[in-house]
Specification:
Shape: globular
Helix content: 40-55%
Number of strands: 5
Oligomer: single chain
Strand order of the largest sheet: 1-3-2-4-5
Order of helices and strands: EEHEHEHEHHHHH
Length: about 200
Amino acid sequence: MTATLLAHRLTGNPDGPPLLFLNGGMMTISSWERIAAPLGDSYRIVRCDLRGQLLSPGEPAPSLDAHVADVIALLDFLGVDRVHAAGTSYGALVALRFAILHPERAASVIAIATTERITPEHWEGTVEVRAAALAAAAGGDGGQVLDLIFPVTYSPEYLEANAAVLAAHRHQTSLLPPIWFRGLARILSSLEGLDLT
C-alpha cells in the first residue's frame, strides 16, 4: 500500500449511505458526474482516481489487490465502514475483488461492462493497447490508444454518426501527459491471467 491517499471527491448527501464509484481504466473522477449528480440527493458519493489514473499520485498498483488496499486506506481515512461499490470495466474488477477480500465492507457491488476473466483473445487486444500506451509515453501519438479501442467498443454506425465527437476525444487523449499513458499501460498489465471465476 502506498502512503499517499488516492485523489478523491466527496459529494451528495452527507447523511446518506455511502456509494463508491470506481473508474474504468481510462476514466477519472469527473467521468461519473452525470450519474453521481442525481444520486447525490440520496447517497454520500465517494469518487476516486485509482493509482495510475489522472489525479492520484504515485506509481500505478501492479495488481487488483493493491488497488483494493488503496481503496481500503481511503475508506478508513474517510471513516466509511461499509459502502455500495459501483465500478465499470477495470473499476468493476476492483469492486469485485474488494468484495471478495473485504465482504464485511461491501454492502453491495454493481459491476458494469466487465468480465470475470481475461480470455487469450481479450489479452491479445490488451497487449496491443498497452503497446500503444507505452509508445505514447515515449512521445508517440496517444490518440493511437483510442484508434485501437474505438472499433471494438462501438459499432460502425456509431463511429460514423459520432465521428466529430470521437475525433475531439482522440485529440484530448493525445494531449495527456506521458505519466498517464505509463499508468494506463501498468493498469492493463495487471490484467494478465486475471480469472475471478
